[in-house]
């Protein structure tokens, strides 16, 4: 199974805007990408938005459980839920 692995662990992700900035280039997001959770689900779940992501069977995003993904961060929890709903994408929270 081919995987696109995007490692965000070295980056200080505090907000969703930080996340969108961090994934835009490695995921090949178009300039018109909506930078919201619905647009992200369309990209990783439905597909057809990013030729880069679509070239792989699965997208794996690695991040640390701090900042955006710290326990209790509502934006991080909603983003993690989007990953959980997508069959061909996974969020790995690693130290």
TrEMBL record:
Which Pfam family, just one, is annotated for this protein?
Answer: Barstar
Looking at the record, the residues that make up the Barstar (barnase inhibitor) domain are 15-86
UniProt lists the family membership as follows: Belongs to the barstar family.
**Which named protein is this?**
Barstar family protein
Source organism (scientific name): Streptomyces beijiangensis
